[in-house]
Amino acid sequence: MNDQAIHAVVKILKREIRKWQVPIVGVVADRSNDPYQVLISCLLSLRTQDRTTAQATERLFRLAKTPAEMVRLSPKTIRHAIYPVGFYRTKARTLLSVSRDLIRRYDSRVPDDLDELLTLKGVGRKTANLVVTLGFGQYGICVDTHVHRISNRLGYVKTKTPEETETALRKKLPRRYWIIFNDLLVTFGQNLCKPISPHCSRCPISSDCDRVGVDRSR
Q1: CA angle at 64 for the pair 58 and 66, rounded to the nearest 5°
Q2: pTM, whole model, 2 decimals?
């Protein structure tokens, strides 16, 4: 895939993803315009299917939408609200820890700086970048398994880890696409460009894809 093809790919994907449900974190961001709710939904979404995350997020936010409200909940109440998200016991502790940290260090406000977000226990680069981009509308590149896989499958980058992919995209991807790139590729990856046996016969960007690592497709 040549460097100029990314413009056509982004244009096509922006049109195509209207067919599908966007990731729940994006829904929360659009609905609430609240960085804290974006952060919490990000933490819940880790290693969890989007539908499960959406349901858990809705139940939890009926109980607490601010750090102050969250810390008034017991760990048991949070666990019950977010079950069956992956690692729900650990995540319940993380939500309380992050909420206490925000109250103590940031006067209950979520920091808009990537490095400061990474100091919060349980917050990795994927979550921090999502909060920066979706919560604050600032430039950042969130790389999850879909972004890492598809960026390499297209032949746009050649990397071995999500961290390497983020670095490569920061150097190569036009800045105007940074904020939307995650939503585009996550939605595309969940619905068409599957990890195993992707739907290449129905892919709207197949002509620009190098199909790196694709041994079997539909």
Answers
A1: 120
A2: 0.90
